[in-house]
Batch of 2 targets.
Target 1
Amino acid sequence: LATSTYFRLWDGRASLNEGALLRFSPDFTTQVIRRLDPNFAVCYDQRTRVPLWTLEHLTRETITMGKNVDRGNSIFREDNRIHTFFRSTNQDYSGSGFDRGHMIPSADHRSSQESMNNTFFLSNIAPQVGKGFNRDKWAHLERYARALVKHYIGGLWILTGPLYLPRLDPTDNKLYVKYQVIGPNQVAVPTHFFKIMIGQQKDGQLDIYSYLMPNEPIDKDTPLEKFLVAPELIEQNAGFLITTEKIQKNKIRTINQPWIDFKL
Amino acid sequence: LATSTYFRLWDGRASLNEGALLRFSPDFTTQVIRRLDPNFAVCYDQRTRVPLWTLEHLTRETITMGKNVDRGNSIFREDNRIHTFFRSTNQDYSGSGFDRGHMIPSADHRSSQESMNNTFFLSNIAPQVGKGFNRDKWAHLERYARALVKHYIGGLWILTGPLYLPRLDPTDNKLYVKYQVIGPNQVAVPTHFFKIMIGQQKDGQLDIYSYLMPNEPIDKDTPLEKFLVAPELIEQNAGFLITTEKIQKNKIRTINQPWIDFKL
Ligand SMILES: [Mg+2]
Ligand SMILES: [Mg+2]
């Protein structure tokens, strides 16, 4: 591909014609969309070395544990289809103090060992605070998502990803985005994570749940409802449109109205 | 488009088939590539509200001032084809202390008033320090690029864009990316800017020049050569591949070897 792209551009003609510019740009992107499994995909950001967003389709089947499936057999693996310039590695996370946090949780796709293994590609991983977040409140939200699946016959689509939100610096009253980068590949440590869940009722109507959490230890008694935010807030900061543009307004039944008596 | 995408996804079937996931993602991106003119395009980053990269094709024609072309007739305009959630505005820059810095310089495309006007879309703009940078050393580099054009019969391709580079915090010995955001739309203020120039000789051989400058006042006596860096450094931080993958190695004559006796 690299060679053919080259020839399409630098074919020796003095390229003064209108097409000269465009011949250069078609596969010129900083994002790579990777279908890791039939039921999930990631959009990897080559600039930050973590995903921009991940998308999964959950059903009762995907969350039902298959025979002989064992999380202990899954190992974190580099994604070799990402160029080495942009690929995150286990070494980046090692000793960083951060967990290798799944965007698409392994427990969401446990019908086969292969699907579970596919959630362990590092292209699906971002640095998360372990205690109080990845292992606790964020895991709580993930369990809640799986509990929802049973109530949506059409399935549940979940978008998960990182954000880098600005904070006010009181010393100069200006807004700054600040985040750490870890390891030789300078993997970004997001300040927040979002999760948007879209559940489809039997009649096609949709319920949308939209969560935003800081990447920090969170008190275990904080109710999940406290992290509900308008989906537009996530869209504006993540850079994509879902509820604002991709979904017909009259198909939406509820937004951020958890209705399930949720005890986990 | 939004509606049809909706129907392709939520068509009422219980979507357990393999295609259910993919039907959701095709036009789901955080980047928008905009062809602003036959000779230049920008890849706008909806997350940062500035370009990820811009690409232009320079020839003697594009840099020759056309009849009655006047920079004073060009005004900075919002790019209405960017969704309001992500669109930068003049208000964002107003009073921020930063210049509206052209990525594709207006003086590069002055053969017609229309082409020059097209460089004034805010989708081609990023916040730059004015004195000592946009109006001085960065402008110096832009003049150098135009001086190069005369020497490349095949034309000159220029990639320009922002970077957000980490710095070591001596208090905890960790690396942090930190940048300001300005205005109601929180437009990112890049820490650095890059410019990669690819000149094509008559025989098809290529000369590559690769510059990286901090977005800060730079002493006017600093020679441009001081800002030459390996193109791979820019690629790794910008998230794309040009010299590493898109260009055949045996077509490259020189990298970072300015050979023109440059007096401006
Ligand atoms: Mg986890
Ligand atoms: Mg300028």
Target 2
Amino acid sequence: MSKQNQEGITVKKDENFSEWYQELMIKAKLACYTKVSGCIVFMPKSYAIWEKFVFETDKLFKKSGIQNVGFPMFIPESLLSKEEEHVKGFVPEVAWVTEAGNKKLSERLAVRPTSEAIIYDTLPNWIRSYNDLPLRLNLWNNVVRWEFKNPVPFFRTREFLWNEGHSAFASEKDARAEADDILGMYDKVCSEFMALPSVRGFKTDKEKFAGAVYSEKLHYMLPSGRVIEGPCFHYDGQNFAKAYDIKFINNKGEEDYVYQNTWAVSTRMLGTMFTIHSDDKGLVIPPKLANEKIVIVPILFDETKSKVLKKVEEIKKSLKIFNPILDVREDVSPGRKFNEWELKGIPLRIELGPKDLEKKSVVVVKRNTGEKISIKIASLKKEISKLLKTIQKELYDNANKLLKNSMKSSKDIKETIKFVKDKKMVSVPMCKGEKCEEGLKDKMPGLKTLFIDSEKKISGKEKCLVCSGKAEYFVYVGRTY
Amino acid sequence: MSKQNQEGITVKKDENFSEWYQELMIKAKLACYTKVSGCIVFMPKSYAIWEKFVFETDKLFKKSGIQNVGFPMFIPESLLSKEEEHVKGFVPEVAWVTEAGNKKLSERLAVRPTSEAIIYDTLPNWIRSYNDLPLRLNLWNNVVRWEFKNPVPFFRTREFLWNEGHSAFASEKDARAEADDILGMYDKVCSEFMALPSVRGFKTDKEKFAGAVYSEKLHYMLPSGRVIEGPCFHYDGQNFAKAYDIKFINNKGEEDYVYQNTWAVSTRMLGTMFTIHSDDKGLVIPPKLANEKIVIVPILFDETKSKVLKKVEEIKKSLKIFNPILDVREDVSPGRKFNEWELKGIPLRIELGPKDLEKKSVVVVKRNTGEKISIKIASLKKEISKLLKTIQKELYDNANKLLKNSMKSSKDIKETIKFVKDKKMVSVPMCKGEKCEEGLKDKMPGLKTLFIDSEKKISGKEKCLVCSGKAEYFVYVGRTY
């Protein structure tokens, strides 16, 4: 195997998805491991993308009246235990601080897996009457959930970054109405910046958040045929308010418990974006999230070198708003440079050789399609701008095609399994019995409900896919990541 | 005591600084406590200021070529122990995770008190030759140091927010040259946005960072007469590189260890800023960091109410860039509103009553001085803009006066103690003996060296303030926070 090949990705995305992903992480310098098992380093490239994502999302949050806030990352065990379902859901994954300095602590402190317990115990001091509502708080922070499965960068790590939003309202109606605002903002950033279309859907009771009345999420289809949950919204009703005693005086002068929501998006979206857009050559990222949108590679020969170098310097300057990389290394061949920058996901490459110079043009290569276009230098800035928009749209359209093609429906378990094996999700009729939901995995390993199909209504005649009893709703089933 | 007074601060800053500060924190809604002892909540108001500070600092970092990155917050005990002085300095304050899920961990994990150990253990994979240098990485994150003293919001809490910069260079010269860049950026943001002037100075060997060759910091004088350390820069030489085996091939083809720096600024700067500018009425913050720069209070009488309300709505719209608050509450008197917004530190208040309306003017009140100015509505936007700049400058100038007036020099221990009791810091001649540095606290409780006086050179005749032996340098002594 030549050195050049070893630098590139050696596995095909279609043939061995998980090996391909691991190579992409390391070789495109997105993540690496440390001696802390199950945690990763967010390398500068991926961290910069997360920062942009946070910036854009946060801008919408602020515009919507949400306030950022900082809470301690430690939660005393007794506080975490106040809401019964919540604690059951999280305790198996909690990392505990038991010693500090050289002393044993009198009570274990959880490293936050999520901050409901610490925030909600404080809220009674912040809320007195309906005048203090709605209270819409948000945290951008790090949380820890001690997974025992193999770590996968961005998708499954013991520590990850996210936002956690926590809002309190004076009425159920107001609280529920926040779902469209929140999921709308998430979807806007994920589709406009990450070029990722989603399907929005309610979780079944079995799959909802520990402590919530209902959970609604945005779902994405990975090229491996597994469905992944992205941004989520949970309506908690008065469950936490009762556990943590968060009361207020309503506009009739009566005491009531607040109505709460929680909502989140995590660095898992980075993994989702990397897998959906990237290919066998390496990373592909949407231009809007690429820090460096262009690489300029001069083709150098001894006689014309100085002229070509002078011109690429000029081009670099004129394209400054795209933060271009100019690669003038002389000990690396153009071909190897092409491979390297393709691996690293620079959206556009500009090649300039002596012949191009004569024609006063350059060759521009699109990272996502490999398409080569000759463009006059005089109109380069305008054309680059257009091309970046085109790439952004093409990535979205492709992801959308993958998503739409993956959505099937069936009333037959054999056909359903065939679809799922073929990397689809399937809308099927089911009863609401937890036993049937549990029973899916006996029909096919890993098969489970994804979200309720809100487009299809039950006529009354459909039978549950599992028990053949009366079906109560259509629900998408498939495999998850 | 009337209800109005209880809402305001009841203690004078001059008379009981620490009580005053605690009241400021709670009543201006900057921080509050939770059931996790020693940690605080950064309430929306203070968190927003930190976000702005981070944004401005980060902009300069990025311009200077520094890359942000994310590392795990857990550090295995064996890794932390690699650099001997470093571990000695931090272990007494470390919080340890010893259990996760329901399992005991085979090795204790430190919650990062700082990230040298986890970053430097990874760097050998990132650095091969001088082509990979300089490598300038930065993290904005949360760290934990388990203080056993009483917590003071922003100044002393077990968890705090900060940046930690870690850079590696190919030569000592390059590494040392980074100090001016880094401390320059910190000073720019602290002086231009926080309106806080500083004195830059090297720490004595005894006071330097655990593991560093030298430490250089920016120092601020608090109104209590205590000196506080702000942003800091540590030149680590090859100390960590040798402990963590961070080698590279230099441009002569030889193997060498990298030369490293670390640098940081923390949320302690918020406390510094709050105490220096605020007063007996409550919070004062520099306009550049105030989210809401103006509050508009209409003076309402039955006959003229609708006219006045219409006008303040217009004014609010025209001043939108200052993010004004319009306080139209009718169940709260103007006087109480004035007190409330002064407590909360809104830089400018606009009052509009029927008489002002007749004169087509408003009364504008400066939060920092209480000065009242009548301004024509037609030129309001322009004048507000000027006034905000004036306030920003006045805050800086006042802080600078406090700082400059607090810097004394003396060769006599009695006079030195008198100065320090009078809230000053004093440049004194000393030998470099650690015993003499230790001995300062026997002369006066809490007396210690602050930083080396770089302006004054030893003539050879000066005697050490403590042992009367030959003095080797002038060094500032005083009390610290």
